[in-house]
Amino acid sequence: CRCATCTCIPRDCEWGYGPYAGVMSLYLQEIALNRLWTAEEWNNQTFAVLDLGTTDTEVNICQAALLHAMHNDQPFSKFAFLSGRYDDWDMSTLNLTNIRDFAMFTALNSARIGRNRDVALESLNKTLSGRTFAQYCESNT
């Protein structure tokens, strides 16, 4: 559904007509899981790890394999981000170990917007206590 000379998405690639580009990552994660997880791992999962929303401060980042900024008004919202509502967001109160704040920080940091990035990172470093995210997650899943 990609075409170097096209000026718009071909009709057979639009929503409802074929492999819609807007949700291609959803299709690909299903294919990847079939390769990565055993049937036992799939059958024994006790909570969702894929396609998790980005508004929950109670879900630890270690519990998520793939985040999805959905259509919502609460932080983190991809629409608020794109419209500039987070351009001056104070990151000093972010807890980078929950999925909402991790998504917020990742987006703001990638766009070089928001304030107090260093404060958020200092807080994360205190939480990690010299460990990597992988090491932190070994004791938090």
Structure overview:
The protein is mostly helical. The protein has helices at residues 24-36, 39-43, 78-83, 99-111, 117-128, 133-138. The protein contains 6 helices and no strands. It is flat and about 50 Å long. The mean pLDDT is 88.
Beta strand %: under 5%
- What integer value in Å does the Rg equal? 18 Å
Largest sheet: none
Structural class designation: mainly alpha
The total beta strand count reads: 0
Summed up, what is this model?
The protein has helices spanning 24-36, 39-43, 78-83, 99-111, 117-128, 133-138. Helix content is 39%, strand content 0%. The longest helix has 13 residues, at 24-36.
Overview features:
141 residues, flat, single chain, 39% helix, 6 helices
Give the secondary structure arrangement, pairings included.
Blueprint lengths: L23 H13 L2 H5 L34 H6 L15 H13 L5 H12 L4 H6 L3
